[in-house]
């Protein structure tokens, strides 16, 4: 049986039906999103929607483990979809280009969870706000240098919003951050951490509810910090 | 008074606001996040937030890469 080892974990015993019923939409299938989506599909999250406007380039290959030399110039979403279907041919994978206000509705339709694994500030501010407006649970994972940031925002839960607010409460207005240096292992560590958190959220585990995790990807330490609602937040306050 | 800044002990003026502390460290608020005693302090409240003896500050730069 495909999930025999996974279901040896007491909290994941009998979880395959639940995971297969969930739909997850992933923004960005680069260093974080490619591997993360693959791990989710492997775990049985087979209803996936992926979005990315980029094609594979040579400078992606040191960290974006789904892509090969012969994929250069091809759309990342197409290669990612193919990899998922080779892993599990029951998977249903929807494919979108870059997400904006014009296609978000369709992209997120029916999603139980949206993962923002994109690579720029503007997209991140937009995705969080759009998920908040539709009360879709949202995971934010980002990496740069040896720093990783990971948090789930349970926008479908009014109590969560009341107590912990939204991504904007945490980050403020994110400036246009310059691309940081990055090593492949750092990206893959955060991709795995994001998949782990997504599986926990989908499986109903609330241990990390209300926290942001701050990863030091060089020394392998994780700090758990409590989220706090900003009562004057332009997105969720008031 | 004594506070802890990213794990290191530091001497600061009594009654210093978090906003002033961040400024004094040469950091810009945009793109920076801060936790005091392991709870995130929303940026809008930094100027009203007074540091107290023995507080533990975690100040970090946000990242957006994927
Ligand atoms: Zn907010």
Automatic annotation (TrEMBL), chain A:
Gene Ontology terms: biological process: cyclic threonylcarbamoyladenosine biosynthetic process
Annotated ranges, domain THIF-type NAD/FAD binding fold: 3-235
Pfam family, one: ThiF
PANTHER family hit by this protein: TRNA THREONYLCARBAMOYLADENOSINE DEHYDRATASE (PTHR43267)
GO molecular function: tRNA threonylcarbamoyladenosine dehydratase; ubiquitin-like modifier activating enzyme activity
Protein name: ThiF family protein
Organism name: Succinatimonas hippei (strain DSM 22608 / JCM 16073 / KCTC 15190 / YIT 12066)
TrEMBL record, chain B:
Signal peptide: none
Pfam families documented for this protein: ThiS
CDD domains, per database record: Ubl_ThiS
SUPFAM superfamilies listed in its UniProt record: MoaD/ThiS (SSF54285)
InterPro entries named among the record's database cross-references: Beta-grasp_dom_sf, Mopterin_synth/thiamin_S_b, Thi_S, ThiS/MoaD-like
PANTHER family: SULFUR CARRIER PROTEIN THIS
NCBIfam families: thiS
Name of this protein: Thiamine biosynthesis protein ThiS
Organism: Succinatimonas hippei (strain DSM 22608 / JCM 16073 / KCTC 15190 / YIT 12066)
Gene responsible for this protein: thiS
């Amino acid at each position: 049986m495909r999930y025999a080892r996974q279901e040896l974990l007491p909290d994941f015993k009998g979880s395959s039906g639940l995971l297969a019923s969930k739909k997850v939409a992933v923004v960005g299938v680069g260093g974080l999103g490619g591997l993360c989506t693959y791990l989710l599909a492997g775990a049985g999250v087979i209803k996936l929607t992926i979005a990315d406007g980029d094609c594979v380039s040579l400078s992606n290959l040191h960290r974006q483990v789904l892509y090969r030399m012969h994929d250069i110039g091809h759309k990342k979403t197409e290669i990612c979809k193919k990899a998922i279907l080779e892993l599990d041919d029951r998977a249903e994978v929807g494919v979108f280009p870059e997400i904006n206000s014009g296609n978000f509705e369709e992209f997120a339709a029916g999603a139980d969870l949206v993962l923002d694994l994109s690579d720029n500030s503007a997209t991140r501010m937009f995705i969080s706000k759009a998920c908040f407006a539709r009360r879709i649970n949202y995971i934010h994972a980002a990496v740069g240098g040896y720093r990783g940031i990971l948090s789930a925002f349970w926008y479908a839960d009014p109590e969560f919003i009341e107590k912990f607010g939204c991504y904007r409460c945490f980050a403020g207005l994110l400036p246009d951050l310059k691309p940081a240096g990055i090593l492949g292992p750092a990206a893959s560590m955060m991709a795995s951490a994001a998949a782990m958190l997504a599986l926990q959220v989908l499986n109903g585990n609330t241990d990390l509810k209300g926290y942001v995790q701050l990863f030091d990807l060089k020394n392998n330490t994780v700090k758990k910090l409590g989220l706090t609602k900003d009562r004057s937040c332009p997105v969720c306050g008031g | 008074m004594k506070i802890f800044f990213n794990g290191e002990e530091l001497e600061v003026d009594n009654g210093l606001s978090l906003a002033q502390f961040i400024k004094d460290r040469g950091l810009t608020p945009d793109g920076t996040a801060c936790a005091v005693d392991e709870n995130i302090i929303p940026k809008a409240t930094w100027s009203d937030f007074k540091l107290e003896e023995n507080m533990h500050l975690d100040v970090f730069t946000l990242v957006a890469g994927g």
